[in-house]
Every structure is written in C-alpha cells, then in structure tokens.
Backbone:
C-alpha cells in the first residue's frame, strides 16, 4: 500500500542502528613504526590497537537508539517479548534510506490519466484473465461466502502485486523500523505496524528477518500490512495456516473478507459519472469520500448523475485529473470500501475499471 510522507534527510537514518566497525587509520599505524620506537614496543601497541578495533565496535553494537530501547521495553511489558532477543533482532537491521525516498513519492500521487496508464495494460488484463481461470472455483467460493464480486478480488490482487509476481523486495522489519523511528509525523502508525509485525511473526512462526514486502511494510500477494494480516487474513484452503505469501487461495479469501469487513454491499454499484459546475464543486469535494448526502440532495447542489442511480442512495462527489481536465464521479458505498484498502481515489478507480474489463473478458453478459 502507498503512503504519502515527506522526504527525510537520509544521513540521519544511521543513528538508529548499531555502530559499524571503524578501522584504525593507516597513518597512525605507519607513524608507530618510525625511527625512535623500539620494535617490541611497536608490536605491543599494534596488538593493543587490534584489540581496540574489535572491542570498540562490539561495545558500540550493544547500544541501540533510545527510541528502539523504549519500543523494546513496551514490547516486553505489553507482550512479554524477550528483550535480549529483540535487541539481537534490531541489531541485524540495516539502515535503508531508499525506504524514505520511495514512500515520499507514491505512484498514487500521479494524475489519474497517468496512473491509469500504468495499470490498464495488457499485462494486468491478460494476467487477470489467467489468474481468474486458474482459480475460478476458489474465486466463486469467496464471492459466494463474502458477497464480493470475483472481478473485484482479482483486480485488487492485480493492482497490488500483478497477481503475486511483485510482492516486494524490502525486508519488512527494516522498512517498518525506518518508518517507525525516522518519520515523526507518521511514527505512531508505523510503530503500531511494527508491533503488529512482531506479534504476527511470533504467532505464525515466521522468520522476522526473512519476510520481504513493500517499502511501507505490506506483505504477500494481497499486500496486507501486519495489522490487516492479523485481523483479516483467513485460511481459505483449510490447511491450518493463513499464508498470504505463497497461497493464492488464502489471498483470495482474505481480500474478500477484508472488503466484507469494511461493509461491501453485494449487488450495489460503485461509482456513477457526474456533471457539475467546477465553481460549485469545491464545498462538496471537501466533505470527503464517506457517502453522507443522498443523490437527491446532491442534485439540489447542481450535481447531475450521468447514469441511472437510486436517488435515495448516499454518495460522495469526488474528482480525478484527466488529460483534458478534471472528471467528476459520485462514489457510492462500495467505492468508499475500496478506498479502505488504499485511500487513493486513483487506486479505487483503477480497481473498478480493471474489474469491469476482466468481467467482460471472462464472464461477458
């Protein structure tokens, strides 16, 4: 999932991780072997310096940043973790300034027409058709049990990871540690996700340093953050494990469960294109994506739906940037639910459009 934050000076990232070994300057060693110094004394001093090279880094590696020590204390008190084991784990973490660079420029910030072009392509359409046909029985079962259309499940997985092909290359522990301790405006969120991650790996017996995911710490085929993994992942193939990293059936069931948990309404629409005077739109746009006004009420404010829609249904006006200017839609309840997976309007729009295309290809009416 994509998160908008501001770029942080990457030089500061080194302070939260253990100090690394620093060699003794070669110039100092050379001077000790010069004239006037007895060879036995030189050997003794070099031996002492060699011990210092080993001892100083060893002592430095025992010290973690105060923020990490405080976090370890919380995990020990709250969840009975072994503080020594946590210290050892965090000492393995490397500073990853690329995490901050990546999360500071999320792809969802692109204008809609540019973002759309990245996802409405042959790879995701053809890949979605293959994925749907390969997992048809599982998708039908998930749709029946959770009330979420098969095409929405497939499209979500397609947008997130190209049907499991691109699940992320960053160590989740390192990504979450960077964001938890190096981005103060969102530190609370990522400290919470780091907490959830450690609980997840303990519960499931995962290798804490072995799991890789997105730059924001999202995991597996559906790219669940650790809190979502613990709360919404399901064992959909009945093998006794909730495996979102290697098991498509569990990913399919978990995506459907996620949407159902946030209030997906079976059989209802997602968006309706609309026309509105841009000069009158801003107050309605500022209400947000949660549907609060009925279509009938929105009409009184000059919003005209461009397709049939129940006038009693609640909706929210939103806009996205096309190459020719802003376009407007009415977002219904199910559109809002998609934005709970990712809060970007661009994201929700492309999931809807890809789903529509996949449905037309696999199950044309």
Residues:
């Amino acid at each position: 999932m994509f998160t908008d934050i501001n770029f942080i000076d990457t030089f500061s990232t080194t302070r939260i991780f253990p100090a690394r070994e620093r060699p003794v300057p070669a110039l100092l060693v050379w001077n000790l072997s010069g004239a006037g110094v007895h060879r036995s004394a030189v050997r003794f001093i070099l031996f002492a310096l060699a011990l210092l090279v080993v001892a100083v880094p060893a002592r430095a590696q025992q010290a973690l940043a105060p923020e990490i020590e405080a976090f370890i204390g919380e995990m020990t008190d709250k969840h009975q973790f072994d503080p020594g084991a946590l210290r050892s784990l965090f000492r393995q973490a490397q500073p990853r300034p690329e995490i901050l660079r990546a999360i500071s420029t999320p792809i969802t910030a692109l204008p809609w027409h540019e973002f759309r072009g990245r996802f409405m392509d042959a790879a995701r359409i053809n890949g979605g058709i293959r994925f749907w046909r390969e997992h048809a029985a599982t998708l039908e079962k998930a749709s029946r049990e959770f009330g979420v259309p098969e095409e929405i499940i497939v499209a979500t997985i397609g947008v997130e990871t190209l049907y499991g092909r691109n699940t992320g290359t960053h160590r989740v522990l390192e990504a979450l540690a960077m964001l938890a301790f190096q981005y103060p405006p969102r530190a609370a969120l990522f400290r919470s996700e780091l907490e959830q991650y450690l609980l997840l790996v303990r519960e499931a017996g995962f290798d804490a340093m072995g799991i890789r995911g997105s730059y924001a710490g999202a995991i597996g085929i559906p790219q669940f953050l650790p809190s979502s993994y613990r709360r919404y992942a399901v064992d959909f193939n009945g093998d006794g494990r909730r495996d979102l990293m290697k098991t498509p059936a569990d990913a399919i069931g978990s995506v459907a469960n996620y949407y159902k948990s946030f209030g997906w309404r079976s059989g209802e629409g997602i968006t309706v294109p609309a026309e509105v005077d841009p000069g009158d739109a801003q107050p309605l746009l500022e209400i947000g994506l949660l549907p609060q006004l009925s279509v009938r009420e929105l009409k009184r404010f000059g919003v005209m739906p461009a397709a049939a829609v129940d006038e009693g249904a609640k909706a929210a006006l939103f806009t996205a940037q096309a190459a020719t200017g802003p376009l407007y839609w009415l977002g219904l309840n199910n559109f809002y639910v998609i934005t709970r997976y990712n809060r970007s309007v661009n994201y929700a729009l492309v999931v809807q459009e890809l789903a529509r295309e996949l449905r037309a290809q696999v199950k044309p009416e």
Confidence is low (pLDDT under 50) at residues 2-37, 53-60. The longest strand covers residues 314-322.
